[in-house]
Amino acid sequence: MNMKTKTIHTLRLAFALAATVFSTSSASAAESKDHVKKSAAPAAAGTLTPANAKTDAAWLSQAVAAYPLDGCVVSGDKFDGGAMGKPQDYVYKTAGQPDRLVRFCCKDCVKDFNKEPAKFLKTLDDAAVAKTKVGK
């Protein structure tokens, strides 16, 4: 894959992440203007599954190349092939949203992610936005 294609894929990912962040911010702003409090429906929960042979190899390759962090989203440990070994790749799926790659250093971090997925997905979103700004 040439540099221009990688750049296009990275920009597409960044725009998709930014759109998600902006749509969430807009919804929150609209809700805060309401004077009557409404019971908010819980956000659709996603599912986290290990990447495996059934995972689209082309998608996974692009997602790894565009991944905004060089370490575990939970612990921050760098993916350097040290004691933790290779990163553990998982796919986070939410209805109506594109699949997302989430990389961990170990299974304990997978358990921690599942306790607060929104927190760690926001970390990924923030890192993608920062990576896009640096790439300009």
What class would the helix/strand composition place it in? mainly alpha
Main sheet: which strands, in order across?
1-2-3
Number of folding domains? 1
- Contiguous low-pLDDT stretches (5 residues minimum) are 17-42
Order of helices and strands: HEHEEHH
Largest sheet: 3 strands, antiparallel
* Estimated radius of gyration: 16 Å
Mean pLDDT: 76
Form type: globular
Helix content class: 40-55%
Instruction: Please indicate the percent range of residues in DSSP E strands (runs of 2 or more).
Output: 5-15%
Number of strands: 3
List keywords for this structure.
three-stranded antiparallel sheet; 11% strand; mainly alpha; 136 residues; 4 helices
Give an overview of the whole structure.
51% of the residues lie in helices and 11% in strands. By secondary structure, it is mainly alpha-helical. The protein has one domain. A 3-stranded antiparallel β-sheet has the order 1-2-3, with helices on both faces. The protein is globular. It starts with a helix and ends with a helix.
Summary?
The protein contains 4 helices and 3 strands. The protein has helices spanning about 5-35, 55-65, 105-115, 115-135; strands at about 45-50, 90-95, 100-105.
SSE topology:
Elements: H1 3-33, E1 47-50, H2 57-66, E2 88-93, E3 100-104, H3 107-115, H4 117-135
Antiparallel strand pairs: 1-2, 2-3
Helix pairs in contact: 1-4
